[in-house]
Write a structure and sequence with these properties.
By secondary structure, the chain is an alpha/beta fold. Helix content is about 25%, strand content about 30%.
Length: about 250
Amino acid sequence: MKAALVVNSVLPDREANLASILAMASEAADKGVDLVVFPEAALTGLINNEHPARDLPLGEPIPGPATEKLSAFTRARGVWLAIGMLERDGERLYDSAVLLSPDGAIALKYRRIQPQWHGRNADPFVYCQGTELPKADTPLGSFVFLICGDLFDDAIVQRACDLRPDWLLFPFARCFSDGSHNQERWDREEAPQYAQRVRRVGCTAFMTSYFSGEGLHENGLSFGGAMVVSGDGTIVETFPLGRMGMLVVDV
């Protein structure tokens, strides 16, 4: 399988972000990939601030306008596409992800189970978590999603492991508290921890984080970067922090 892990740049304009996502997905398809993977909350960034009147409009229904445009793309280009996005379901908001098939169908939808995508004081009737951890069987193999902090929850990781997937889709968003893009620190302290957590799942993981610059709420900051990690915890390929772009790999 040939996959593209895209690090898109997230700006305050959601429509501009979606246009950029479609352009980068098209660039990946031009490279002959089977699968394109985008980060967590790729349309908006994690800029929720625990004020429902502001945050609920950040979410979109699934299916909805964004997934319809992305599905049209996967049908036109014949690729699989995975993306994280804030999902609105009535008056509830979820940190979700979808896998779209080459025929435009939603092959897999996941709502993050681990709650730290929002603050502890967030209204639990608005800022919600999923409970299900589904698996999709596809011609490329079987897929599961975990999103960001899910990977560091032992119970959630064990549930993923028990499903025995072939591939782990891992959209995430990370920043350092000082706002830096410290590659040396990431390589030394952080990346090995992620790799060891992937080892506990036991399958190859496609991991990508969005890149944001100044101008977003601090909760939206993310330093980018992408990795492919094998099921034995070996870091196979990486894309550097601090810029947008894509990592294309044959696995």
